[in-house]
Amino acid sequence: MRKKKQAAAPQNDSPILAAYEARVAAGLIHDDEAQRNVIAQLERTLAYLRESGGAFHKFFGLGLPPEEKTNIYIWGSVGRGKSMVMDLFFEAAPTANKRRVHFHAFMQEVHKRLHNYRQNKNGVDPVMALARDIATETSLLCFDELQATDVADATLLYRLFEGLFQAGVVVVSTSNHPPASLYTGGIQRERFNKFVTLLKEQMQVISLRSPSDYRYMQLRSLQKTYHAGSGAEAFIKEVLEHMNAGDDPEYDLLVVQGRSLSFMLYGKNIGRFTFRELCEKPLGAADYLALANRLDTVILTDIPTLPAEKRNEAKRFVTLIDTLYERKIKLICTASGAPETIYGEGDGSFEFARTVSRLVEMQSANYLEETQS
Predict the structure, then answer these.
(1) Closest C-alpha among 233, 244, 249, 220 to residue 364
(2) Fewer CB atoms inside 10 Å of the end CB: C or N, the chain?
(3) Residue 238, Cβ neighbours under 10 Å: how many?
(4) From CA 213, how far away is CA 103, in angstroms rounded?
(5) Nearest to 322 by CA among 299, 293, 356, 350
(6) Model confidence, pTM
(7) Helix count (H) and strand count (E) of the chain?
(8) How many Cβ atoms are within 10 Å of 212's Cβ, its own excluded?
(9) Beta-carbon neighbour count of residue 124 at 10 Å?
(10) Comparing C-alpha atoms, which of 168, 246, 209, 240 is closest to residue 76?
(11) Number of Cα atoms under 13 Å in the Cβ half of residue 311
(12) Cβ neighbours of 244 (radius 10 Å)
């Protein structure tokens, strides 16, 4: 078996650590020993990229000890700095044809390209052809928030990643889950076993066990996460400033069972929606679960006071809040009034009291400290 070239120890100059310490010195981040430990492993992969000079070799790293694996899988709870340290690595990587992409967006692209292969390349294995093409385009792939939500992707993910690894593409990823818990769809989990085994064989799995949830610390500094009455836009602006999310969002798209939901995306995992977009359209639990799998913070604006005849909107709102609550998604709200005034009478108003209770609890320090499930 051909053995992959061993990753060299980091050189004396450590660009990732230097960039990290510069941010600490500037007061942009807190110094965190757990983050430093992950950076030390990323420096090894950076040294490998430097030595190879972009001339990657095919390998299949079955059985290699962790310190010789240049592919890295970083997992940990929300807000621990996984994306931040990976971004520092990506910026320092000398590879010209490198790519950093959110895994959700990557999979949307994969499905689109596979459709084109099936339409235009008869007789060619579309998954292997796509893996070869990606390897030609990209020597370093950095995935943010790697996860699997669709059981139909089980075989696809295994074969695609097998092709990427065999072609010598270096993969660095972050995830909220260890490989064994990567699939969050709930049914037929055993179909992902081959993919999980492949990740463990090919990637060095590192847990970022920081004791601090920096996203929670940002939210806690707001003093509140539910705003009622006037001044809603000023409140949202303050939220975005506290979370260092900027005021120039991108647009993302969720597609669930043929339904499309477009939304504003701030940073990497903060989505902004209006009540009308989520609760006045014919959406349901599957849509809200897909949203919860994609984001760790939801900004929901313009929650109205609902009259009795708006029972369908109230029911969707209940389903939405239940889904976000169960997944421990952080929720920022603007509304016309306090939670107890949203839906006071009508069909289901008695059951709505539980939603009121959850809205109140989701503002608490205890809830904000809980990790995403």
Answers:
(1) 220
(2) N
(3) 15
(4) 22
(5) 356
(6) 0.64
(7) 14, 11
(8) 14
(9) 12
(10) 209
(11) 9
(12) 12
For 54-63, the pLDDT digits (tens) are: 444 444 444 4
> What's the burial of 355, exposed, middle or buried (CB within 10 Å: 0-12/13-18/19+)?
buried
Return the H-helix or E-strand segment holding 143. strand 140-144
Give, in order, the Cα–Cα distances in Å from 72 to each of 109, 208, 346, 366.
22, 12, 53, 32
Residue 188: phi, psi to the nearest 5? 50, 45
Of 146, 126, 130, 138, give the one whose Cα is nearest residue 293.
Answer: 146
The CA-to-CA distance between both ends of the chain, in Å, stands at: 40
Alpha helices in 193-261 (DSSP H): 193-202, 214-220, 232-242
Q: List, as own/partner pairs, every contact residues 221-225 make where C-beta atoms lie below 8 angstroms and the sequence separation is at least 24, other chains included.
A: 224/363, 225/330, 225/331, 225/332, 225/333, 225/362, 225/363, 225/368
Q: Which two tokens stand for residue 14?
A: 């450590």
Order of strands, edge to edge, in the sheet holding 170-175? Answer: 98-102, 140-144, 170-175, 71-75, 203-207
Residue type, 100: R
Cβ neighbours of 241 (radius 10 Å): 13
Q: What is the pLDDT of residues 270-301, one digit of tens each?
A: 999 999 999 999 998 889 988 988 888 999 99
65, two tokens: 């000890």
Q: Which whole number is the average pLDDT over 211-225? A: 64
On whether the CB atoms of residues 302 and 276 are closer than 8 A, the answer is yes
Q: Are 108 and 114 in contact (CB under 8 A)?
A: no
